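Blackboard transcription, Thursday session:
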Amino acid sequence: MTTPRPAETLASATEATPQPTDWPLWEVFVRSRRGLSHTHAGSLHAPDAEMALRNARDLYTRRSEGVSIWVVPSAQVTASSPDEKDAFFEPAGDKPYRHPTFYEIPDGVHHL
Amino acid sequence: MTTIAPEETAYEAVFDATVAADERIEPRDWMPDAYRSTLVRQIAQHAHSEIIGMQPEANWITRAPSLRRKAILMAKVQDEAGHGLYLYSAAETLGTGRDELLDRLHSGRQKYSSIFNYPTLTWADVGAIGWLVDGAAITNQVPLCRCSYGPYARAMVRICKEESFHQRQGYELLLTLSRGTEAQHAMAQDAVNRWWWPSLMMFGPPDDESAHSAQSMAWKIKRHSNDDLRQRFVDICVPQAEALGLTLPDPDLTWNDERGHWDFGPIDWTEFREVLKGNGPCNEERIGRRRQAHEEGAWVREAAAAHAAKHGKATR
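(Written on the board underneath:)
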């Protein structure tokens, strides 16, 4: 558990033996309206980016859920590994000075 | 993921603690092989049910009695295709490709819900399916929104929102018929008579005969037993039927003050098992049509793949 493994791509965990007509998997991100960020909505199979976009429109925005869609080939996504979670994210824990609450401010000082 | 034995126990402890804390298991987390395979089975069969479930209703699209009803029905069937896709995606996060799952459906190695092997004989069946079949599905699926496997739980949240539109449209359809002419009322009653018992069977075999239940509940894949959910559904439906002005085809249906629930008559489990074995009224027709669509569509899929390769827009 302590030995970090090389990060695998999402695709290696999700793809079975590919066949000639096996369409690649795409991850879909939808931004619901102006000012907000794109959020992962799900995934779908499509032969190319245009079809992925078109299908994502039909599949994930049928009820006006969004105003902008990104599609990304799943094979292009590299994810952090749950096995190395501790080692990977630990540095945040021993640097409390990165949080504003770390700093003591005398009573009576406002708007700081 | 191959691991050596002592590591495995450590992983298992983390898994058990995550489930116990009501946290979600995610695709890249370690999980017991049996947890993975039971989820693949359940999610895939759920996805297959959505896809096969398009057939009985689509049967009436061209014959819908008004443009409004037709548009509603098309939107509903489109939703079901979408639900199938969300669920196949969730199943794929467990390491099985969608093509492989479809193969298992086409070859009969994986099942779909027994309910879709019943025929839609009249327009009122579209209403009965919406009210009863989708109603049973919602009762089953709302607890799945808290399922321990994250991708499945998230797919169910989305699906449940859309299912409630299906259930309401079905109910409204039946209400219109029930309040219509004598012939329309009779047609609505006949549809409810034929769909009531198959809908109760959707909750699966009784608790003492359910093979996967105990383990699935321990893993928090399932939150309630088949019989509990079935009872909940009956209790919900009785007043809804009354408001419709229709009766449920069960002479034993009586309010039990002591239990605070409706008592209902025995379910014909022989029929249930026959349908599951492939001997229901429409099993062959449903799977035959699915296979035909898949086989006859092969050249279109190949053309799309060839076009994508030629224009270099596919993933590398």
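Lecturer's comment: Chain B touches chain A at residues 7, 10-11, 26-30, 78-79, 82, 85-86, 89, 92-93, 95-100, 155, 158, 162, 298, 301-302, 304-305, 307-308, 311, 313-316 (CB under 8 Å).
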